[in-house]
Design a protein that fits this description.
It is a single chain. The protein has one domain. Helix content is about 20%, strand content about 0%. The chain is globular. It is mainly alpha-helical. It has one helix and no strands.
């Protein structure tokens, strides 16, 4: 399985991977490859509605 994530810094992505993937006993292996530059525009739609956030990283989310 592959999962593509986007973040403003590597530390945010690392926290998400550690808390939601590496801590899961059903996950056997996690490998991270970083893309730091792209040749063409790549648009990823985001829903920044943090009022619905129920994850363990809620205290790291931006608040208005």
């Amino acid at each position: 399985m592959s999962i593509m994530m986007a973040g403003f810094n590597v530390e945010d992505i690392d926290k998400i991977v550690n808390i939601h993937l590496r801590s899961n006993p059903d996950v056997l292996k996690v490998t991270i490859d970083l893309i730091t530059d792209i040749m063409t525009d790549f648009v990823i739609p985001f829903d920044f509605n943090f009022s619905r956030c129920e994850c363990k990283l809620d205290h790291h989310c931006w608040k208005d």
